[in-house]
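Holo model, pyrrolysine. Inputs:
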Amino acid sequence: MTRLTDDLVRGVSGSLDSVDDMLRRTTGMGRMEMACDALGLSPGDISLEGFKAFAVPITSGLGVIKRFSESVAEIARKLGMDASVTESSDVTGFAEAVNAGAETVFMADDTTFAAYNVKAGTYANNSFCTAAGYTSALKGAAGGLEGRKVLVLGAGRVGSIAAGMMVRGGAAVCVADIETERAERLASAIGAKASDDIRKAISSHDLILNASPARIPGSIIREGAIISSPGIPHTFDAEGLSKATVIHDPLDIGTSVMAMQSASFSRLK
Ligand code: PYL
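Output:
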């Protein structure tokens, strides 16, 4: 999983409303509807009344990312949670959150970003939720994925989960990865096709879920393509952005689905 940087996170807080606008414009769903759709729920299924959430800064590994926890808390607040950042970090911060009545605790080290539901004793995982959120966004923007050809770029955690979701949803999935064997392994595991020619695959698909850090030149993107793109870094050129509908944000969509999945563990009506 590519680690976010201070720069990538810096812009998250100021763009929460524009992400919501982008989602409505491209998928017909706002943040809450998309997050619930990703989980097979509707907003009315979950009550967030008095729902307390805390984001705990985690200093392990490469350490804290500036404003990561603050951005996570802001996203949770946008969904209607009473969310804040703990004073302390790590285990002390976790204990602070539990003592303050947390129902969900958000924590991320360099490998796992989890939203732990204290009441239910289980957690939402960012990789699963990011895959579900970007799959839901692609489905919304495309008007459904059943019977549609979809290219998944990147057979890592998010790409693999999303590819499996879309195969189960009836899409004709093709997987491509810079490591061809990884694409082939995933494709055979989920009953999809694999391509060993990434450029050809991109130029022959209207629907793409890009879970790779690759820079995709606009010249090979089809006019009118829809690219649901959790991949970071996010580097589409002007030609690509003019030809395609590109759905992307570095943290918001995945965190929104995590927050709602974590809440669903204790608040499903
Ligand atoms: C959750 C993001 C999405 C993509 N990559 C994942 C990442 O950057 N993980 C590392 C997060 C580290 C957070 C740091 C802190 O500020 O608490 N430990």
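Residues 129-247 form a domain with the Rossmann fold fold (CATH 3.40.50.720). The mean pLDDT is 97.
Archived with the compound record.
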